[in-house]
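pasting for ref
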Amino acid sequence: MVDTRTQPVSRTGEAAPRFSDADLYSLAEKHGTPYFLIDEATLRRKVSEMEEGFSEYKGAFRVAYSVKANFNPSVIRAFTSEGILFDLTAPSELVFVLKAGGSSENVMYTSITETAAEYEQVIRLGVRKVVVASYNGLVNLTEAAARANVKVKAMIRVNPEVHVHAELRGSMGHGKFGLQFNGGSPDSALYVLKRILGTPALEFEGFHFHLGSQIEDPACYAEAIEKLEAFILEARRQLGDFHVGTLDIGGGLPVPYGKKVPTPKEIGGKIAEQLNSLVESIGDRFTLVAESGRYLTAESTVLVTRVVNVKSFGEAKYIYVDAGYNVLLDSALLRHEYPVEVVPGGRPSPQKVALVGRLCDPLDVFPISSRSKLGGAAVGKLVLFREVGAYSLVMNMPFHSQPRPPVVMRSGDGSYALARKGQDVERLFADEGGDCLPS
């Protein structure tokens, strides 16, 4: 049963996933702690929120899931049934999508290394839409497509070089990602576009850019679209007419992590008018794609841990849990303030509370958001970390010889099923080379 009495409300006005105390303790007894718990209904709701967010765009709109955020097969399967696209950056991610029931027809492949070997592999597995971001990558894609005797739809990843107020920025001068519009070298969007248009094995499909993560100001999207419009018009003047079938504006939709942030509707609504104007300007009613990894998955998942020790140190109270940053690496790398709550809760402590993990590392102290509720913490009680569905599962590491925790999913009908087995220490020992030792 879902406990609806004290449901936290997200900044979209929807209830964040809530689980009954009885279910949380029952799962802890069955699987041990820590464990991750995913709510399938929340995954699906996030897709709907993105689709509604860009509903004012007058052309077709597609959501794309960035698999790097969480490649658990149960998550991929849920998104597959929603009919959305998948943004992939590695052949191994493609294998996960295909084995989880996805189709290569719904894949947009955006490589970072752009090697001939990976292009050959993904083309062999049926991918036909590829984003290139370098001249060398274009050469490799062209040769791979020619060898396979197939026609590949090529998109160009551009770097609009706009200033972005974001936690992680993906658009900057001389950055890692994308091509300058016209830098006067083969590694420029204009040069690569010209080569694509003249290559029989390729069909030009459109443009892609990614500005960053946790973007709260849509003005950077507006500036990027304005620069892209100017580039398209100038490129047509120099190269002749060409069709733009797809525009992928990347990700960046923010997750609250303890503070109020704009909704997809607030961001999408503010840039829809400019996107519609771009359609009129270039004469192509392109398919608009918005990617997300973090937004689609973060709020769906909680990490369930157990209080194993409590101690007072002067005016401070230290709460020790049986998880560390090895399962929530962003808490140490980016100081993410995950909303945390004790189950069942109690009166707030008059002491200053510190929440710490089980690792022998002074960095293993969890930042506490303003939405956290740590009153009533006592040995044996459970502690929930909310909004941990993005990157936490895929960045688990075995520091202190810690096995990966199990993952449980609550399906749409309210039932619970194991989505990833917990790794025991024997398996970890073997994976780390123990089975290579002489007997």
